[in-house]
Amino acid sequence: EKFKLLSKSYPYNSLVTSIIVRNLRKTKETSGTKGYLALNGTISGGETDMSLEKGEIIQNKIDIYRNILDYLENLNIPIYIIISPIYSRIAPTKSEKIAKALCQEYQNIHFISFVNNIEYLGKYKLFYDYDHLNKEGAEVFSNELCTYIIKEETK
Length: 155
Known about the structure:
Blueprint: H1 2-6, H2 16-25, E1 49-50, H3 59-74, E2 79-83, E3 89-90, H4 94-103, E4 109-113, H5 135-153
Parallel strand pairs: 1-3, 2-4
Helix pairs in contact: 3-4
């Protein structure tokens, strides 16, 4: 986990292999993306109230997350842990509650969840599928997030 963090691949979870393969292909679709590949298209609409938490909470992963937060806190710079918007309304998950609670233990680590944010909820034109913003949604979200962080850091 620390190696993923240090290599700046941590935000991509377990997608490292698919990212490497995509970058090795060097097609027109991936050239010049700098790690970002726009998802074009929109979701067809559908259920906007869902309940999701699959799987169990694994204590070892919580310990790893805490170790990463300890490492980041020691850098003495503002850190933002972000959960991006999803298409459907969901109840806060156990993992989200744990992540938020752990972040609150640190002075320089801020937790922001855009889950259930009214600006995105059910807005099919902003989503490629239920979990991923499309290109337009990513641009809207990036602008909103940048504005928020700049405002927070200039208080």
